[in-house]
Amino acid sequence: MSSIHSLDLKTFITSVVGNIFDTMLSMEVIEGHPAETNHGNHIVGSVGFAGAVLGNLNLDVDEEFACQMTAAMLGMETDEIEGDEEIHDVIGELCNMICGDLKSKLCDAGLTCELSIPSITTGKEFKIESRGWDRSEQYHFRSHDHTALVAVYLKSAN
C-alpha cells in the first residue's frame, strides 16, 4: 500500500481537470496562480471519501464561470439556464467526476475508499477551511477570465 505522501497529486489533478474540462465542457484550462482566487459570489462543490484514506475534494468557481460551465455541459446558452438547481447539479457532477478519478488513483495505490454524494455551498466572501489533514493541496486553473480552484485534503485512516 502506498502512502498518501508518495502520490503525485499535482500531475494527476492537472491532467484530470484538463481532460474533464475538455471532454465535458469543450473548455481549455491552464494552470493558474494562487492570487487568482474567486471573490464575490461563488459556488463550491465538495465530495468526501472514506476508507483506507479519508479526504475531501472541493471545486470552487465564481458564479459567472459556473453559469458558463453549466451552459457548456448542457449544450445551451447561459440565458437558457432555468435556475440554480441546474448550476448546482453541473458543479456537483464535475466535482464528482474529478473525485471519481482521484478515487481510482487512490485505489490503484492500495488506498481503497468510497465517495460521498456531492454537496454544494454558495455565497459571497466566504472561505472554506479544512483542518487536521495529513496532506492538503490546492490547484488553480484558468479558462479565459475565470478561475477554478481544486482543493484536495487527505488523511490516512490508520
Describe the structure concisely for a colleague:
This protein has 158 residues and is of the alpha+beta class.
Give a structural overview.
The chain is globular. It has a single domain (4-156), classed as CheC-like (Chemotaxis protein chec), CATH 3.40.1550.10. The protein is of the alpha+beta class. The protein is 34% helix and 33% strand. Helix 1 (9-25) packs across helix 3 (84-108) and helix 2 crosses helix 3 (84-108). The model has no long low-confidence stretch (mean pLDDT 91). It contains three helices and seven strands. Strands 1, 2, 3, 4, 5, 6 and 7 form a seven-stranded antiparallel β-sheet that branches.
**Low-pLDDT regions:** none
Between the first and last Cα atoms, what is the distance in angstroms? 12 Å
Choose one word for the global shape.
globular
Helix amount: 25-40%
Number of helices: 3
Q: At CATH's second level, what is the architecture? A: 3-Layer(aba) Sandwich
Give the topology string: H per helix, E per strand. HEEEHHEEEE
Number of domains: 1
Outline the biggest β-sheet.
Answer: 7 strands, antiparallel
Instruction: Name the beta content range.
Output: 25-35%
Work out the oligomeric state of the chains in this entry: single chain
Q: Say what the CATH topology is.
A: Chemotaxis protein chec
